[in-house]
Amino acid sequence: MSEVLTPKDGFEFVDTQDMQFTVNGTVASAVKNADGTITISYTFQKTAQAVQTGDANQDGQITAFDAVIALQVVAGLITADDTLKTVIDVNLDNNVTAYDAVMILQYVAGLISDFH
Ligand SMILES: [Ca+2]
Ligand SMILES: [Ca+2]
Fold it and tell me: What pLDDT sits at residue 16?
């Protein structure tokens, strides 16, 4: 990403050589442009990725394995943290049940196109 800083009227940016700063832990670079503006370039680190509903193992794909994980949670074989509970409660009834696993399988089979 980059931002362009434009000096206020009557002011100008002078020396950008010593400008060092970080944005989200990444060193940003500042380049003075011919028109007197400064372009600051930086990279954002993704802090948290949005997790797709039904993607229990968060691998970016909804497969039968995600349904198996949901069933393992239902059976008490896996203790689900709040994130996992949210991801596999695909019908949004605040309970993880076998029905959520069934809906994931229906999604995998193409019988439903979303969970709502
Ligand atoms: Ca998955
Ligand atoms: Ca549910």
Answer: 58
pTM, 2 dp: 0.59
Give 1-14 as a DSSP string: -EEEE-PPTT----
Nearest-ligand number for the alpha carbon of 55: 1
The answer to whether residues 5 and 37 touch, using CB atoms and an 8 Å cutoff, is: yes
Helix, strand, coil percentages (3-state) for the chain, rounded to 5, are 25, 15, 60
Are 75 and 50 in contact by the 8 Å Cβ rule? The answer is no
Going from the first residue of the chain to its last (116 residues), give the mean pLDDT of each consecutive group of 10, the final group possibly shorter: 81 67 71 84 66 91 96 95 94 96 96 90
- How far, in Å, from the CA of 86 to the mean position of ligand 2? 9
